[in-house]
Known about the structure:
Layout: H1 7-20, H2 29-33, E1 50-52, E2 55-59, H3 64-71, E3 83-86, E4 91-95, E5 107-115, E6 118-125, H4 137-141, H5 145-148, H6 165-173, H7 187-210
Antiparallel strand pairs: 1-2, 2-3, 3-4, 4-5, 5-6
Amino acid sequence: MKTVLTIGQWAMILFVALISSTASYAATPAAASAVITIDEESFSCIREMTPVRHFYVDNLLGDIEGTLAAANSPEGAVYPTGSVVQLVPTEVMVKREPGTFMASGDWEFFELEVNEGGSSIVKRGFVDVVNRFGGNCFACHAPAKEKWDFICESGHGCEPIPINHKMTGALQRSDPRCGPAVLEPGDTMALIKLKAMISIGLTKKWLEDLF
């Protein structure tokens, strides 16, 4: 299914690319020389990552302290290379090597399929990854570029997402890669609502592509 970005989304991409082209990236020699290999084995049970408020973080290069420092900075900070940020099991952001793609702050976005056997990468990229709700990942995160290094939270400038913390929590607690679900009261209903929202979104997208 072909995804078409709106004029506004392309304008946002071009604007951020122009601004970022003049920015300098401060990186330690170790971070600058590190090369990140990312494949399906890079992603596993979301609950094995480190929780920060309502999302989870990790670092593929082992610098979890640096990632946590950025995530917990009240004034915002640039995340170190190798940082992984996840709100739900099927969507991931990974901080790539400095200068990889400055328009996205070197963040690469991933859309995953997950099951008991592990993860499979459905789509990866910097500006053209679209989630199952039809949202372009880069366009959604771009408003949080300044100060927050593209990380969306309340008050960071991003448009509200169509799901709430109860729904994201239910998805985290039912990640099939983690083994049996550890659902809390209300999670089952939240998951039912999510499935309905996804079905409606897919139907709407199919009709848009058809006509």
